[in-house]
Design brief:
The chain is α+β, with helices and mostly antiparallel strands. It folds into four domains: 92 residues, Rossmann fold (3-Layer(aba) Sandwich), CATH 3.40.50; 56 residues, ATP-grasp fold, A domain (Dna Ligase, domain 1, 2-Layer Sandwich), CATH 3.30.1490; 127 residues, ATP-grasp fold, B domain (D-amino Acid Aminotransferase, Chain A, domain 1, 2-Layer Sandwich); 95 residues, Phosphoribosylglycinamide synthetase, C-terminal domain (Glycinamide Ribonucleotide Synthetase, Chain A, domain 4, Alpha-Beta Complex), CATH 3.90.600. It contains 13 helices and 23 strands. α7 packs antiparallel against α8. The structure holds adenosine monophosphate and glycine.
Length: 422
Amino acid sequence: MKIMVVGGGGREHAIIKKIKENKDVERIYALPGNGGIAADAECVEIGAKDIGAIVEFAVQNGIDYAVVAPDDPLVLGCVDALEERGVPCFGPRANAAIIEGSKVFSKNLMKKYGIPTAAYEVFDDMEAALSYLETAPVPTVIKADGLALGKGVIIAQTLDEAKQAVISMMQDKQFGSSGDHIVIEEFLTGPEVSVLAFTDGKTVKPMVSSMDHKRAGDGDTGLNTGGMGTVAPNPYYTEDIAEQCMETIFKPTVNAMNAEGRTFKGCLYFGLMLTPNGPKVIEYNCRFGDPETQVVLPLLESDLLTVMMATTNGNLEETEVKFSEKHACCVIMASEGYPVSYKKGFEMVIPEQIADSVYVAGAKFDGGKLLTNGGRVLGVTSVCDTLREAITESYEKVEKISFGNAYYRHDIGKRALDAHKA
Ligand code: AMP
Ligand code: GLY
């Protein structure tokens, strides 16, 4: 089989390494991939948003199955376009990807179908939003409607900060047209859990839970990033909570999407907060999380490609989705200065013995050398019997990797370890 994976980050590298385990796979193409992914797939210089070129490539090269991993092409209708030309795909169509593409859509969906989430109001008029803030409790959470690279959420501690956030989104267009509509919502508290789930639109099979570390600095300080590291499973996500989430969140979401005529197939990502009043949805994503994928897939014991194809073909119920009982930890190595500004182009050295544990996010080949080429450069994952061992092993591997201006957090997994002790 010839497989095509759209995307070029650490998540895609983890997906590709796992798909390679299937004996029927002859070739894997990554569009565009990156210099590190090139060790595991044939990288093709086609951008993940260039839907026309992606479809042409798939048709010309006889692709048997396509995996569309990032949010942008999904929201832009990459799956629809490929399916129209007869290429079966993993991932939702555009009318279902809207669950991530529009926060207004997802909040209204949850309200309509009684799925627990933070109380909220939607505004498309700045003056109305500003006057609403006068009576809203602080902290207040302000979210731009559309995709904003994970940066469209502001937690305002004071009324002034909240007003500033509304003005920068709606008047100054900080996130472009994503700020034409905004959501102002209740501030929730509690541990956060990421749960990725396979679904064929009928059956939902959740993957092992995980914990992201979104802030740039140790001790959860500094700016929000795409994610500086992950551990799985998430110790806060007990079996009782998992059952509750299945009945009150996962199944109702899949059913709600069907009822709206927007059947979701692929990987549905539930960003949950375990509040004192029960689990609530903070966000939905229409795809695998990054860097959640880099801890979740290494724990998957079933064949990934078989499970993916089952979501497309509608036979997920009969398909085994089994996870190991072990623990995984992924530490992201970034470029100093990420997520604001950083230098690129430093030579990277990744020893051969640990290459299997490394998922490359931002690198390119130049003159035969592998050079850094992004904010998040790579992730290093370890799978061990205990969380403590997985953390220790990942940091040992990090010490063996070198590139200029490398930066990483030193406390990935600490909160999870503390929760185990508590
Ligand atoms: P999102 O991009 O929607 O994942 O939001 C980014 C982060 O903001 C989340 O991971 C939470 O830590 C935080 N957040 C979002 N919504 C809320 C909320 N209603 N209450 C408290 N924290 C929130
Ligand atoms: N790690 C969070 C995300 O993928 O959106």
